[in-house]
Amino acid sequence: MIEHPNEVVTKALVRLVQVGGRKAAIITLDNGFDHKKPNSFGPGSLRSLDEAITAATEAGPAFIAITGKPYIFCVGADITGIPFLTSREQAVELGELGHRVFARLKNSKIPTFAFINGAALGGGLEVALHCHYRTVSGGAAALGLPEVAIGLVPGWGGSQLLPNLIGVPGAAQVILQNPLTQKVLRPKQAVELGVADQLFEPADFLERSLEWAAAVVDGELTVQRPEVDKDMWEGVLFFAKQQLDEKLHGAVPSANKALELLALAKDSSFEDGTAAETQVLADLIMGDESRASLYAFDLVQRRAKRPVGVPDKSLARKVTKVGIIGAGLMASQLALLFVRRLQVPVVLTDLDQTRVDKGVQYVHDQIDKLVGKRRLDEGTAAKLRGLVSGSVDKSVFADADFVIEAVFENLDLKKQIWAELEKIVTPEAVLATNTSSLSVTAMADGLEHPERVVGFHFFNPVAVLPLLEIIKGEQTDDATLATAFAVGKELKKSSVLVKDAPAFVVNRLLTRVTSEIFQAIDAGTPLEIVNEAMDPLGLPMRPIALLQLVGPAVAYHVGETLHRAFPDRFAESANLKKIVDAGLPVMVDDEINPEVAKLVAGGSAPLSADEVRAQALDALAQEIRIMLDEGVVAEAQDIDLCMILGAGYPFHLGGVTPYLDRSGTSERVTGRRFLPQGVASLPA
């Protein structure tokens, strides 16, 4: 019998209630903790549900309903138990257990209902899909089948039930598109798609759901569901396969397996379809991609919320006003973020009033857009607009507790700004720099209070990418660092402590890859070849598209910084300088600009795509080992967290180090693995 030794069992508790003179059995899922520790299904939880279904059935009710504890229905399988599955047979047993228990709700002669009162993800949504009818609370935070994002597939009936309930286009959205774009369904969307039959407001959700269920059972209400169109099934999946190949290039096995299961759902019996699910799930559970995905998921869910090396939070100073030096696009994005999250006065400065006014107007316009999207109410929006102001006079920073600069990447300019500002702000005010590559220590050098200067490096677009690299200069004190991390938390960013080293983590590694790419280009490798070289990894962007996003001038500037620091590893590229000097876009209509291709043509030793990829991966492994030896971050896990959250590296790679380990690159290049055996991969 499969066991999870550390499982927090979600108990299925049965109670009988009277509804309009009829007896109903309610099964409530509850692990005994509040919403911060959601319900999940491990072996013990499934067995508890099995017993509850038996007890509910034997009570002879008019209907059986399953619901969850406050705010949480169930968030799916207890993935913390997956590392304890050491054989494929155990994985098959877990799949079959879930199928057997859930199928009792589907096959029940007594009508079954799911009252989705809160978050319902993965196996949580699948158990609801097995019920004959579903209501959903307007307060349910998220609904979905996110398994593909962590290297798995819906393995307890979702791939077979959902397409036959709402049609294959909607099912492909929920099972493939949403997980790969980190989206979930909201309650209203779930009803519109047909995932749920009825939406009720949270205040009286259970009462309304019971009344609705009684009316359905009594025949007073008939649930209408449109017939599923099977004529377009193959066409939808063909189009989905094309999109997957274009985006992932076959690098994510779970996505292709999910497509196969959706295809099977058209004509196969439910029993055959779910048997196939079990086999596919077992294969994926015992594969390295799912282990790497679960490792990445754990980093994002746990390590990101408990950063390593942070001083005691009691040292953090209160921030009641924020100053932003600059009013360009980055500075304006920062102003919007600070005012939304901290809701304190935020003031921008720049060289002239026109620039200041433009920056303030940008923030106001973005607030208006949020109101239009109903993400802000008008009262809050009015308050936020009133908190944002601008001035050309830096004396407005005199009472600011936290000042961040977002000006051009020039060390002398930044030193001059801080020297001027130090005469204005209080001695305790934190001075933060959004530099992407310059030394925080050098920036603070010569100041009267260098201990209050800290790196606070955001990633663009600021509102989307969750990573915040917090850089400790040589003299940065604990109070400053604690304040920086406290502010980062209020901004809802995932902060990682980084040593003051050239280009920090993400930009250093991306620039090392870019350096290798341009060495290949300089050697005569066509742009098309280098652009496709990394496709087998399934990265979010190809190298040339990433160069377009970052901007050739910015990439060249960061490259220069790193070349000066490490000339033996970061080469200067004549071709990258040509592109910068020409001012040409490297991409036009999502294709490589032929003018740029012509500009960099030449070279006598072109490489194949495989050779380019091997060269880039070897360089990554070398650079990561050097960074860890230098103490740029505490552990390899922080490298992976930075690359996932700051560069969009995918979960199926585990960031970067698990892939380098399992491909043998780490040991070949550096002589040892980055992670212990069994971490982010199957034990040897």
Automatic annotation (TrEMBL):
Keyword Kinase recorded: no
Per UniProt, residues of the 3-hydroxyacyl-CoA dehydrogenase C-terminal domain are 504-583
Tell me what reaction this enzyme catalyses: a (3S)-3-hydroxyacyl-CoA + NAD(+) = a 3-oxoacyl-CoA + NADH + H(+)
InterPro entries for this protein: 3-OHacyl-CoA_DH_NAD-bd (IPR006176), 3HC_DH_C (IPR006108), 6-PGluconate_DH-like_C_sf (IPR008927), ClpP/crotonase-like_dom_sf (IPR029045), Enoyl-CoA_hydra/iso (IPR001753), FA_oxidation_alpha_subunit (IPR050136), NAD(P)-bd_dom_sf (IPR036291)
Keyword NAD included in the entry's annotation: yes
- Alphabetically list the UniProt keywords: Fatty acid metabolism, Lipid degradation, Lipid metabolism, Lyase, Multifunctional enzyme, NAD, Oxidoreductase
Named in its record, the pathway it takes part in is:
Lipid metabolism; fatty acid beta-oxidation
- The chain positions of domain 3-hydroxyacyl-CoA dehydrogenase NAD binding read 321-500
Membership in a protein family: In the central section; belongs to the 3-hydroxyacyl-CoA dehydrogenase family.
| PANTHER family (UniProt xref) | TRIFUNCTIONAL ENZYME SUBUNIT ALPHA, TRIFUNCTIONAL ENZYME SUBUNIT ALPHA, MITOCHONDRIAL
Protein name, per record: 3-hydroxyacyl-CoA dehydrogenase NAD-binding domain-containing protein
Which species is this UniProt entry from?
A: Paractinoplanes hotanensis
